[in-house]
Specification:
By secondary structure, the chain is of the alpha/beta class. Helix content is 25%, strand content 20%. 35% of the residues are buried. The protein binds pyridoxal-5'-phosphate.
Length: 346
Amino acid sequence: MVKADGYGLGAVPVARRLAAEGCTRFYVARLDEGLQLRTELGAELADAEVLVLDGVGPGLAGELVAAGLTPVLNDLAQVERWAKAAAGAGRALPAALHFDTGMTRLGLPATEAEHLADHPDLLSGLDVVVVMSHLASADVVGSPQPAAQLGRFLRLRERFPMGVASLANSAATALGPEYHFDQIRPGIAVYGGAPQPDRGPSPMAPVVTIEVPVLQVQSVEAGTAVGYGATWQASTPTRLATLALGYADGYPRAGGVDADRQVVIADSRVPVVGRVSMDLVVADVGSLPPDAVAPGTPAQLLGPEMPLEEVAAAAGTIANEILTGLGRRYQRRLLGQPATNEAHSH
Ligand SMILES: *Cc1c(COP(=O)(O)O)cnc(C)c1O
């Protein structure tokens, strides 16, 4: 899954690396995301299938065909549209069929699935490469919904046995092999997120580290107020470090003034105090030795010492939203790119 610009980390470098690892099937959400991969990674993805989850909208079949993109067909109108494009192209066109088994978002509803099963001619001219569905509650501990959706998907699979079968996102991958079928579709786990955030520590290695420099350090008296709205006051004399980071960088202001936010400076966790502003946050570094923090000292706000899930929880959100919300002005350094490509980018 490299939708939403590779969960905010860069669809192009991520897909390039995954292709080098042997990945041959990539999913994006939007047509434009698929076009970007085809344009920027033409040769590297030449043998790879790029599937567009939105499917084929009115008037868009030509662009999909021209770019060699595979739509994920979500309703009968899309099936008809793509079959017509195949007839026009004079050759079979690849497609995925997405059945709704309980998510109620995208995908052929049960009645349309039945109609399609009864009228297989609707698929003539289409090469169905993937038969898929998506689970709504794979990460909800104790939910009966995954098993119910699995049952529906198994019954659909009997009537649509072509191509590969695919059901599991990251969370469902952790539910067990009966959810895996031929192909899984992991997103957040690829980017270091926990497949099951509510079932203990993540088994995934962290992928992203964010560090920003301290800009200014000051000693303050008890009673000194910090930031917009003066929502925090020092209860004792302390030292404060201002960091080059704000909500414009995707560090969430949401979660409010009571959010239990921490960053790691000089290998220690210290609290963020006061409101998060657009470009700056302030950390209370009174617990650190005075010479441990100076302008230029790095602060880690996400990474091996500060798990994604913890940052997300402090803001009342999920890891996916933290990653996809990362701002554009970080200097991005990509590690582990295939040797033939440049190792640094912005
Ligand atoms: C986003 C998405 C995934 C990946 O989900 P994660 O929870 O990030 O693993 C898989 N399948 C579909 C249809 C999706 O939209």
